[in-house]
Amino acid sequence: MEAETPPARTLAYGTSETIDDDEALDAKRWKRRHVVAVLALLGFANIYAMRANLSIAIVEMTSGGEKKVNGTMLHVHGDFENWTPMTQGVVLSSFFYGYIVSQLPGGYLAYTHGAKTVFFAGTFGTAVFTLLTPPFARMGYGMLVFARFMEGLLEGVTYPAMHVIWSRWAPPLEQTKLATFAFSGSYFGTVIAMPLSAYLGENFGWPMIFWFFGALGVIWCTVWFKTVHDRPEDDPKITTSELALLQRDAFSQSHYMVPWGQILRSKPVWAIIMAHSAQNFGFYIMLTNLPRMLKDIAGYNLEKAGFASSLPYFLMGFQIITGGQLCDYLRKNKHYDTLFVRKVACALGFVGQSVFLFLVMTTSNSFLLVLFFSISIGLGGICWCGFSVNHLDLAPQYAGHLMAVSNTFATIPGIFGPLLVGAIVENGIISEWNVIMYIIISIYLAGGALFWKFADASLQPWASDHTSFVGQLE
User: Fold this and answer.
1) Fold of 30-68+75-248
2) Which residue among 37, 301, 412, 420 is buried most deeply as judged by most CB within 10 Å?
């Protein structure tokens, strides 16, 4: 629906702004949608730092370390050395039991209670339970599992909420770069969390890992809540020209009955689900086990493993930003078909990840091992430029619901991945880890093939034909 640009707009405090003045201001300052994108990136960085820090902390919690006391190196026992690999797998996977439950409610709440508020609430709640993790862990294994479950439950609303935000704040030809820029914070957060967690754990003890990142999360929540608005028209600092751009192609924000039956029968939706689940299967196994892999395969100590295991996520964050920029450049400037761009991004990402993961199994050189792991995980950023924004192509007004559906299925690997590793990798030997690599490669290739065959990038019939709340759900 076209929106006429008004000749003038009354701003806060009764001032008036002409179009010429607005355009002059527009050229001098950041666009408000870019402010939203930067804060969203920092928000996802906080979220993933709080999610990933346990993969480092659990190494020290269960194995202890060497400490110098009066000039003598002594082994300090871990507080939870009696935890078996399977027990550790349950602790690491407990986050995802909560995460999978709140995806669909998160999409619904983002539409009914405001995506900004839902994203804030999810992040703030995660920060609170991160701060409570040390005392809960000392209360017992069950309380730690409960704390991680609650973190997952609260964090699960964030991705659907962010897609609702972008359905209002991203022009169609900027959707890829804005959404992927925000999502890249997940990987930069992991980059920061891995080595910093190792440093904090080595020098201040494992509880400091949770206290530090929990406090950072609370600080971010304060800035987000004061700065971001649900809708562009609610932002007093937005210029008229940017508001007109965002409203020009905007869908009505009226609430409609979600056509769940047609969504769940849609092959393009299932193509997203399969690609998202395949990508997350490998990613979650690496996220929760890469420090342990490097310790078992290359003999890295905790601090060195924490630093080395952060490098792949820096590369992934870089790839998702540059890939998003490139995809929108090809669509906007070179007029490439959106579906072609989405399919090629997914295919290149999955095939590339598989090749370099296979190369991991061919070497025992620690430098090459880290290099191949880094490139393999990093290429996952290219995949995200294909499937993660595809919800907005299919049905922008239902994008939050579609992200909730795909992220629900894509969380299942987070539940079973650590348990699978715990069941197969009993002795920490290379042949056991190779079995895990072969499983990941097979799933990557299957996910890429299914997305290539069934993906679409056009507005779906069930998205263009709305049914009001008083109608019947199809």
Assistant:
1) Growth Hormone; Chain: A; (1.20.1250)
2) 37
Alpha-carbon gap, residue 55 to 73, rounded angstroms = 25
CA–CA gap between residue 408 and residue 277 (Å, rounded): 9
Residue 348 CA to chain centroid, in angstroms? 20
Angle, alpha carbons 278-283-287 (nearest 5°): 155
Q: Which of 231, 262, 165 is nearest to 464 (CA)?
A: 262
Query: How far is Cα 109 from Cα 103, in angstroms, rounded to an integer?
Result: 10
Could you report the per-residue pLDDT of 132-168, keeping only the tens digit for each?
999 999 998 899 999 999 999 999 999 999 999 998 9
Which residue did the predictor score with more confidence, 159 or 76? 159
Round to whole Å and give the CA distance between 431 and 297: 10
| Token representation of residue 126 | 């995660």
Domain ranges of the chain: 30-68+75-248, 259-462
The pair of three-digit structure tokens given for residue 174, joined into one six-digit string = 């900027």
Torsion sign (Cα): 338, 341, 344, 348: negative
Task: State the CB neighbour count (10 A cutoff) for residue 264.
Answer: 11
Domains 30-68+75-248 and 259-462 share a fold: yes
CATH of domain 259-462: 1.20.1250.20
Q: How many CB atoms lie within 10 A of CB 312?
A: 28
pTM for the predicted model, two decimal places: 0.77
How far apart (Å, rounded) are the C-alpha atoms in residues 51 and 122? 13
